[in-house]
Amino acid sequence: MIRITREADYGILLMTYLAQAESQALSAAALAQQRHLPLPMVSKILKTLARAGLLTSQRGALGGYSLARPPAAISAADIIGALEGPIAITECSEEGHDGCCSRQAYCEVSGHWPRINQAIFNALQGISLLEMSRPDPLQPVQFHPLRQTVTANAADHPI
Amino acid sequence: MIRITREADYGILLMTYLAQAESQALSAAALAQQRHLPLPMVSKILKTLARAGLLTSQRGALGGYSLARPPAAISAADIIGALEGPIAITECSEEGHDGCCSRQAYCEVSGHWPRINQAIFNALQGISLLEMSRPDPLQPVQFHPLRQTVTANAADHPI
DNA sequence: TCTATATAGCACTAATCTAGTACCGATTTC
DNA sequence: GAAATCGGTACTAGATTAGTGCTATATAGA
């Protein structure tokens, strides 16, 4: 299955908590406790998010992390991208692979991967941290709604 | 990064070749040779795709594999789903995990994962094997078509 | 019927990646 | 100066992926 790592999963959990904290700085320890996640992991993830510019950090006693931008201006794609690198679904569509894939000569698909990546990226880009940090939507989710009649989100314009 | 396995990657390569073969049955060995992929892997992948109902197989001499449906009726989601299982981006959003995630009590995000999965699923569902088996689109990909116009493919954009 | 060809299914191994931990240095508050 | 907290790097165990091998079964044709 298409999977994100647990790091990105946790990252979203932490970001949603920070979104609710309304720009109040929270320490790694506090976040780990609130979300019931292992502190070392939380610490590592927050460092990465800070380096990516999604969080601002304050060192020292009473320090902590807070969102660098308003929750509406942060997307799922931002968070996942920060923790897992660029959203590239196959090796050959990653950076630095343009033209050096050993199979490229026999691969007509290569030109299509960017579109697929694009579609997934748009889907993730269309979901903001603001939305995610709201309580459960409580809408029953149709899992295989077959191309039509999907509630509006970025994935409605797949390509 | 969000990744599919190499198995699914190869699977799409093989399916596009079969789509071009126009219902002519091709053996695993022939496909492996055409796509320059290791035969045992090709063989394993084709078996899986056949079991999933995307390919029909013919045993014995002169046997081989051919598409079970027209290329327009097969999507990237079908192929990836067949080879990697259901498209579930986190463990807790997989089937059978409804309600047994140990962190669910502290996780307001859980209700949003189905939407994210849905968005990705729709994106992959919207890309047919017919489209993928056409030669390279050669169109520069618009990067954020909804927001701004950046001309680069997804992998050029580390987010 | 025999043989060559080809898929079906399962089991196995090596390499890679992920999850999680540990340590030490730098910075800030009190 | 002490305590709290972030910053960075390195490390380990376990899980996953990639790829291989073997045996059984089905089919076409001589």
TrEMBL record, chains A, B:
The Gene Ontology CC terms held by the record are: cytosol
Name recorded for this polypeptide: SUF system Fe-S cluster assembly regulator
Species in which this protein is naturally found: Candidatus Competibacter denitrificans Run_A_D11
SUPFAM superfamilies annotated for this entry?
Winged helix' DNA-binding domain
- GO MF annotations in UniProt: DNA-binding transcription factor activity
Q: Name one Pfam family in it.
A: Rrf2
